[in-house]
């Protein structure tokens, strides 16, 4: 089975930007799991405060097991993050790699 890319796109409240960036920096240092190749956060060009988190997993199994590996600090940060996101702006995408 091929790799999996999972992404979450959303807009944050402009007044929470500095706090958001602090939380993301800490998350980038903490989010590690078996089968997680990469975790990155991007901001959309020419659209301030529109971000996308991108997770790349080595397999569908690693993707499905990811939530089981969360520790308490990551849960706290994810809760903080969700409080900064504007309602009804979140979009999830899951992509499965095509194998030849």
Q: Could you please describe the fold and organization of this structure?
A:
- The chain has 100 residues and is of the alpha+beta class.
- The protein has a single domain (4-95), classed as 2-Layer Sandwich (Alpha-Beta Plaits), CATH 3.30.70.
- It has helices spanning 17-30, 60-65, 72-84, and strands spanning 4-11, 36-43, 50-57, 91-96.
- It has a four-stranded antiparallel beta sheet.
- Strand 2 (36-43) and strand 3 (50-57) form a beta hairpin.
- The model has no long low-confidence stretch (mean pLDDT 90).
Order of strands, main sheet, comes to 2-3-1-4
In total, how many beta strands?
Answer: 4
CATH fold node name: Alpha-Beta Plaits
Strand count, sense and barrel status of the largest sheet are: 4 strands, antiparallel
Low-confidence stretches: none
By DSSP (H or I, 4+ residues per run), the number of helices equals 3
Q: Report the order of strands and helices.
A: EHEEHHE
Instruction: Please give the CATH architecture.
Output: 2-Layer Sandwich
CATH class division: Alpha Beta
Query: What is the 3D shape?
Result: globular
Report the span from N to C terminus. 11 Å
Beta-strand portion reads 25-35%
Give the total of domains.
1
Helix content: 25-40%
User: Radius of gyration in whole Å, from Cα?
Assistant: 14 Å
Q: Kindly name the structural category.
A: alpha+beta
Mean pLDDT: 90
